[in-house]
Amino acid sequence: MSPYVFKISDNTDIVEAITRFCRKQNTGLCILNGNEVVANVTIKQPSTTPAVVVTFHGFSILSIFTTILPGNISVMNDSFKISLAWPQGHVVCRLMIELLFSAGTIYPMAATFNSPSFQKLPLEDEQ
């Protein structure tokens, strides 16, 4: 496991930038934290008929997180979750995001891994 601090420039799609990094490095990744201002956000609303809400103003990221397994890069966009604060003080948590554009340089913290060990819990008693 290796720690990373990503520097993502202004007006960059954060989801695409991180997806491209994982593809190029052929590695898994877990975003631990990130908080800055974003400009454009496309949010997936979970429901029986998925609707997409697009917003175009500066919001503050309170938290962003995802876990991407090596070799599972094609389904990454569904795994990005975010908590946002609206300029009026409203907070929305655990949104699934599709597009997320930075409104300035942001620095998400992450850890990468290549060979995760999968364990089934709870452990069965040995008899």
Automatic annotation (TrEMBL):
Keywords: DNA-binding, Transcription, Transcription regulation. Transmembrane segments: none annotated. GO terms for molecular function: DNA binding. Residues 1-127 form the PPC domain. It holds the Pfam family PCC. InterPro entries: AHL15-29 (IPR014476), PPC_dom (IPR005175). Coiled coil: none annotated. It comes from the Eukaryota. This is AT-hook motif nuclear-localized protein 17. It comes from Forsythia ovata.
